[in-house]
Every structure is written in C-alpha cells, then in structure tokens.
Amino acid sequence: MTFLVGSGTLWLKVGDGQYDPVVTMYHDQGQVAIKLLGFDQGASVLAGLPLRVTTLAHGTAFDIPGKAITNFLPTKNAFTMCPNMASNRGATDGVATNVSELEERTVS
C-alpha cells in the first residue's frame, strides 16, 4: 500500500497498471481522471455513507438518446460493485473491462 502520491504522477501510474484502486478526498479529484483513463468502463464508489453508492464515469449522455449506441458497461460495472461491497466481497469482483468480455459472460 502506498500513501500520499502526488496527483501529477498518480494517474500516470494508474494508467500504467501500478495502482488499481485509488482513494481521493473529493469526487472531482478522481472522477475527471477516471473519465480520461476509462471513460467507456469506469465506475466510482462513494464511501462513508450507511448505504453503498456508485456512479458512472460517462455522465448523462444527453447527446445519444434514440441512437442505439449506448455503452452499458459502466452501468453493469456500477451495479456489480454495489452488492459486492454490501456482502464484503472485493468491490471489483466480476467487473468487466470491455464490452466483449461482458458479452462472453452473458452468452456462456
């Protein structure tokens, strides 16, 4: 476990795979970086509440309704993380990293 890594290099190390989970003090410290690193798969966790809360990295997607181009992977990942946390499993157990991986699980 590493503590107090400067934000200027932290997200580069996350992108290189040196760190997996990252804890930030505020939503905006982590959410912008998650969008840059994994816009199409990211989900974040809000901790410290009596209930589990996850949010999607991609935002509201106001520009794509009715176009049949929605990427549901961040939603699936957020819904997977909540029950994992509630049952004290690893939050990212079963989280997919790309749509084809998710489709393989669904078909098999």
Automatic annotation (TrEMBL):
It is an enzyme of class 1 (oxidoreductase). It comes from the Bacteria. GO terms for molecular function: 4-hydroxythreonine-4-phosphate dehydrogenase activity; metal ion binding; NAD binding. The keyword Oxidoreductase applies. Transmembrane segments: none annotated. Keywords: Metal-binding, NAD, Oxidoreductase. Its EC number is 1.1.1.262. This is 4-hydroxythreonine-4-phosphate dehydrogenase 2. It comes from Roseibium album. The lineage of its organism: Bacteria, Pseudomonadati, Pseudomonadota, Alphaproteobacteria, Hyphomicrobiales. The gene is pdxA2.
